Amino acid sequence: MEKNSAWQSAITDVQPNSIRLRGYPIDQLMGSISFAQAIYLALTGNLPDERYGRLMDAILVSAIDHGATTPSTLAARTATSTGAPINAGIAVGLLSINEHHGGAIEICMRMIQSALDDRRASGCSVEEAALRLVNGYLEQKKRLPGFGHRVHSDDPRTKRLLELAAQEQVAGAAVEMAQMLTGVLARQSGRALPLNVDGAIAALLLDMGIEPELGNTFFMMARVPGLIAQIREEQSRERPMRVIDPTNQTYDGMRREE
Amino acid sequence: MEKNSAWQSAITDVQPNSIRLRGYPIDQLMGSISFAQAIYLALTGNLPDERYGRLMDAILVSAIDHGATTPSTLAARTATSTGAPINAGIAVGLLSINEHHGGAIEICMRMIQSALDDRRASGCSVEEAALRLVNGYLEQKKRLPGFGHRVHSDDPRTKRLLELAAQEQVAGAAVEMAQMLTGVLARQSGRALPLNVDGAIAALLLDMGIEPELGNTFFMMARVPGLIAQIREEQSRERPMRVIDPTNQTYDGMRREE
Amino acid sequence: MEKNSAWQSAITDVQPNSIRLRGYPIDQLMGSISFAQAIYLALTGNLPDERYGRLMDAILVSAIDHGATTPSTLAARTATSTGAPINAGIAVGLLSINEHHGGAIEICMRMIQSALDDRRASGCSVEEAALRLVNGYLEQKKRLPGFGHRVHSDDPRTKRLLELAAQEQVAGAAVEMAQMLTGVLARQSGRALPLNVDGAIAALLLDMGIEPELGNTFFMMARVPGLIAQIREEQSRERPMRVIDPTNQTYDGMRREE
Amino acid sequence: MEKNSAWQSAITDVQPNSIRLRGYPIDQLMGSISFAQAIYLALTGNLPDERYGRLMDAILVSAIDHGATTPSTLAARTATSTGAPINAGIAVGLLSINEHHGGAIEICMRMIQSALDDRRASGCSVEEAALRLVNGYLEQKKRLPGFGHRVHSDDPRTKRLLELAAQEQVAGAAVEMAQMLTGVLARQSGRALPLNVDGAIAALLLDMGIEPELGNTFFMMARVPGLIAQIREEQSRERPMRVIDPTNQTYDGMRREE
Q1: Which one of A9, A163, C242, D17 is most buried, counting C-beta atoms within 10 A?
Q2: How many other β-carbons are positioned within 10 Å of the β-carbon of residue C252?
């Protein structure tokens, strides 16, 4: 094979005794910005202010874990139970995050974006754009990504995210559209299908300037520590090769007063 | 197969419209604690104070990325170049974090812990314990994990971590031992082999009450967003199936004033 | 979660001291059929005759390895170089088999199938169906999957597969169509773009009754032992964390007389 | 980074229109040797004769699948259920093959090898070497790898493998030792703990000149098609995100007359 010309990367400049992330000396970032802000910087190239930082923190906290029987956790625990090292357990968990589990953020971002584009192109109102989009989905009998949840009819994480987005003045056109879609969907479908946490994250990420291609990675980044906690619990509490029955699990941890 | 009795988990309690992480309602944690603090809570079951939170942030920022040609990034970019989805790219990156790359934190924690245990058991001084440990390694011609670096002779991340640990009064017996080991190693070996960023993280995690089994996962959690940034850059800047030559890469991003 | 009713599988029936694959006692299959035949049985539920068995063997041998610098091998070697266990190295290799590397079989099967369907629906000749298909691709300036190769202008594996298919009388309508497409493509495009090994495998699998969804898995199954050989060579010949330069590799093994 | 000198590989030589596996033109191997023989060639560099080929086939057939509720299959099905592509499902399955599941072959090979080495070094009889080894394990209350099975007290695969090994005259010192260990273990422990399929494969691989480091990869190579069959069944028979209960699965496939 012939020698190619040099290829380029604009993420991290590593020189002896100097590491710069997106141009900033990493030792200056340490202690100055949070991990959540550094994530935003790494992914977008822009240093986020503290408001964005707080929303990033809230988004990542919201999705950190959802119990021991979600598919990604069950797959990771199953691998762990055979003796897999922790990195393999996390890899198994991430490979179990796909279209039907943790994959709604990107497609919800694209849906909201299409409604915003429609509005911009046609000059119509937010409500009109939401109505067209909802009717299109209902006619094709398709579910709107980011709406409804198997377990939660009124997800406390959604409410809190929207509250924080308003408080920090991060909410913009996408959050507005997501809220309009919620109302219009309830009215047109005749039943309440509330915005779920994926939908709220989707709207917030759009308003924070994140590209849809990165949407699902926020779920992945958030869930990695949750997977690690689950994997360590499997390693330290359970015997190898046990039968892991998802229909027969209970919580025996503490309950802290609010 | 017969039905087992219920198995237990103490991490997350999921009930309709209620999600509690280690006992705390997740919507109350959102906006109150950082993602870095939530990671500590998920992994240990204890809510960390703000000092611990700031150190967690600094640790995770320090290891977020180290350029486009580290093995985990090369492997992730290679998979991406064939058309792998992002979660597969991250999985490939994590599966390339092992003993020789990102794996020094756990063994360094165990080494420091053994020196601390030796001190406690024998009643000797910190210096004496460090001397015994260093001499043991030198006699067996073994490298001390957490010391020395291929690229950095004076790693700015190490200095900054130790500075922050002192400032936030998080540094304890493990950091003290790590610093003593640095001095003793230089003296006994006759050459400077400074504490590297893995070693500094190892000492800090011990002082923050983290078990060694979790040590390397801090590198993994930190590196996931770095891998995602690298994967997205590969997807958006490069053509599929290019030859990825690790000897021929340069940085073409911005340089920001300090 | 509520108890579901039992779920069913039709692949393997495991009872104490009895294992039946697709209904056949596995100890009776052992010694009676080849691994390649057992693969066909496991995937389709049908016991293949010896002709099919020989073609299965030839297909799997043809794709067993393609040198140390294919992307899947480079990724697997990179992971191995960091200390990954063998199963992780294989997983990394498989995760690097996607649309642009090893992924042509399925789409080529679908393309050939569509030409066969067109012919059946319209009653046209093989040549007419091939012409329509080729012209459609050329008009859209799209490459036909399964034609052309980066390295081989006259791939010895293709020739041999087609020869064996004829000899064993396994070649049917799909192989006929693939050969017609080759001629028509050369004529219409004005340059020789021969059927490559993926294309030959695609045609053969169709004629052997394999569904397109399984097409790429034949490349994967074949390549697993090749990946293992490469991983073991990396483990036993190279030092950890070496720089793996794909532009600078040579072959130093034996050359056997033909 | 500086340019390294060329690195070498002795597995496959790829030149335009020429691919040689371990020195042999791959198109000459196709149609001449089975996939199982090509696996032996790729891994060892030696072309096996037909007796070895038949044993390789029997070994790989014996481990091709073991039902829908083994851990590797459950993990692969769980990932698939979330929408994972097939290669990710296989990777998840392989990452779930570790010490406690599919990992006994290598350690059993090392155990038998140590008894053979003991015999060679001390000049003792096969029985004496077996006795020492068994007594050592019993004193330490350790299980002998390769003996006993959760489901099968008289595994039909073991019997068939040993029968074929005798018939093909492949059985040598390792098989002899494994059989001696079986008898001695029963006598010394007072209960029948028969050689299981992993143990039989271990002994055979040793007699066929395979290094222990490769032992578990025979389980992996064999299981890949089984995993693919299970993954495709999950994709085609089940709805996404179903609860996969390992305690509630039955077989509904055919039963063929023997």
Answers
A1: A9
A2: 11
pLDDT at A4: 58
pLDDT of residue A156 exceeding 70, the answer is yes
Q: Which two tokens stand for residue A8?
A: 């380029």
Contacts of A68 (CB under 8 A, 6+ apart): A74, A77, A230, A233, A249, B9, B11, B12
Beta-bridge partner residues of B14: B19
The C-alpha atoms of residue B51 and residue C142 are separated, in whole angstroms, by 58
Q: Which residues of D touch B2 (CB under 8 A)?
A: 247
Crossing angle of the two packed helices D197-207 and D104-122, in degrees rounded to 10: 50
Contact list in D for residue A99 (CB cut-off 8 A) is: 82-83, 240
Which regions of chain A does DSSP assign to beta strands (E)?
7-9, 12-15, 18-21, 24-25, 249-251
- Measured between CA atoms, how close is D138 to chain C, in angstroms? 26
Helix residue ranges, H only, B82-196: 86-95, 104-122, 126-139, 156-167, 173-189
pTM: 0.97
Inter-chain CB proximity C247 and A4 less than 8 Å:
yes
Query: What is the token pair recorded at D165?
Result: 């090994």
Q: Phi/psi of residue B18, each to 5°?
A: -150, 125
Cα(B253)–Cα(A14) distance, rounded to whole angstroms?
12
pLDDT of D1 above 60: no
For residue C94, give the amino acid letter.
L
**Close Cβ partners of D128 (under 8 Å, ≥ 6 residues apart):** D119, D122
Q: Indicate if the pLDDT at residue B43 is higher than 50.
A: yes
Cα(B118)–Cα(B115) distance, integer angstroms:
5
Inspect the interface and report whether the beta carbons of B1 and D91 lie closer than 8 Å.
Answer: no
Question: For the segment D223-258, what is each residue's pLDDT rounded down to a tens digit?
Answer: 999 999 999 999 999 999 999 999 999 999 999 876
Enumerate chain B positions whose Cβ falls within 8 A of a Cβ in C. Answer: 71-72, 74-75, 78-79, 81-84, 88, 91-92, 95-103, 240-241, 243-248
In this structure, chain D runs to a length of: 258
Rg (CA), chain D: 21
What residues pair up with A102 in beta bridges, in sequence order? A98
Partners of B71 on chain C (C-beta within 8 Å) are 78-79, 81-82, 241
D208 φ/ψ angles, rounded to the nearest 5 degrees = -95, 10
Shortest CA gap D226–chain B (Å): 21
- Asked if D246 and A245 count as a contact pair (C-beta separation under 8 A), the reply is yes
Share the mean pLDDT of chain D.
Answer: 96
CA distance C19 to chain B (A): 16
Angle (CA) C158 C163 C166, round 5°: 125
Lowest mean pLDDT segment, chosen from A196-205, C68-77, C185-194, D19-28: C185-194
Hey, is B20 helix, strand or coil? strand
Place of tokens 């090893």: C102
- D50-72 tens-digit pLDDT: 999 999 999 999 999 999 999 99
* Interface chains of chain B (3 or more CB pairs under 8 Å): A, C, D
Does pLDDT of B2 surpass 60? no
- Which residue in the set C3, C88, C246 is minimally distant from A88, CB to CB? C88
What crossing angle do the helices spanning D197-207 and D173-189 adopt, rounded to 10°?
150
SS3 D161: helix
The residue whose two tokens read 């008894």 is D115
pLDDT tens figures, B141-183: 999 999 998 889 889 999 999 999 999 999 999 999 999 999 9
Contact A225 B38 (CB under 8 A): yes
Q: Which two tokens stand for residue C95?
A: 């995760």
3-class DSSP state of B249: strand
Q: What's the pLDDT tens digit per position in B97-130?
A: 999 999 999 999 999 999 999 999 999 999 999 9
The rounded distance, in Å, linking the Cα atoms of B110 and B178 is 12
